[in-house]
Amino acid sequence: MFDAANYCRGWLSGFTPTGIITMASGNLAACLKTVLAYEGGWSDNPKDPGGATMKGITLATFRRFKPGATKTQLRNIASSDVEHIYGVGFWDPIRGNDLPFGVDLATMDYGVNSGPSRAVKDLQRVVGAPADGKVGAGTLKAVILADNKATIQKLCARRLSFMQGLKIWKTFKRGWSRRVADVEAKAVAMWLAHAGMPAPSRQSELNAEANKAKDQAQAQTKGAGGAAGGGVVAGGGDAAVSAEPNWLLIAGIAAVVAVVIAVLVIKARQHKDRAAAYKAAASAV
């Protein structure tokens, strides 16, 4: 049986119980592969304030590295330049080489969407370090001592919560929910692989996470249905026993029920996305 606590103690000395070096040094390329799958290819929409963009890199950003670069050069940007720009802009600020495998992916992808400082602050909040947005010795120690799978999952949950507070959430919620779920599952799979867990055990753990998420989604879907039924009963009962229904009370109950239902439906959808992502990660082992 995999001993996570013993693994984390081994991390402090630089090795897992199986002798695998655990620092994520050199893991940028693997993390970037997941990030770029969501950042898209070439875009040059005149209505887009960001202007011409290739693989998430704007022309303005590219010109900071290659002064005077043209749109054609951006469109044909070399893979080495893409990795360098993401490395300097996102990997280095989160100290990706010093984070555990999987935690580096979850933090980097968050940073690409919302800025490295915000990503690091939420990582710090998850592990109980001062949230100053800078990865120092104290933050690294807290991350290393934490349960890395839980760190990844909590960080992704915080990221999604932040996204839900944005004005454009309604427009992008489906894609964002799937992206965060996919990153979470791939990050956990990455962590388990580098922890030295055998492939069959990794599959079992990832499938267990998928089933857990599926159960949560079903419970929340059922809860939404129950809340809807309860709201109808509450409103009908009030109207039935009163010669003059208290419409303000009924409206208030309906509003509360609507909010509860909306929250449960959103959470159910997110857990469905997580279940699908973990299933896919398990199949990829």
From TrEMBL:
InterPro entries: Lysozyme-like_dom_sf, TtsA-like_GH18_dom. Keywords: Hydrolase, Membrane, Transmembrane, Transmembrane helix. The chain crosses the membrane at residues 247-266. Residues 202-223 are annotated as: Disordered. Signal peptide: none annotated. Residues 33-115 form the TtsA-like Glycoside hydrolase family domain. Coiled coil: none annotated. It comes from the Bacteria. One of its GO terms (molecular function) is hydrolase activity. This is Glycosyl hydrolase 108 family protein. It comes from Mesorhizobium abyssinicae. The lineage of its organism: Bacteria, Pseudomonadati, Pseudomonadota, Alphaproteobacteria, Hyphomicrobiales.
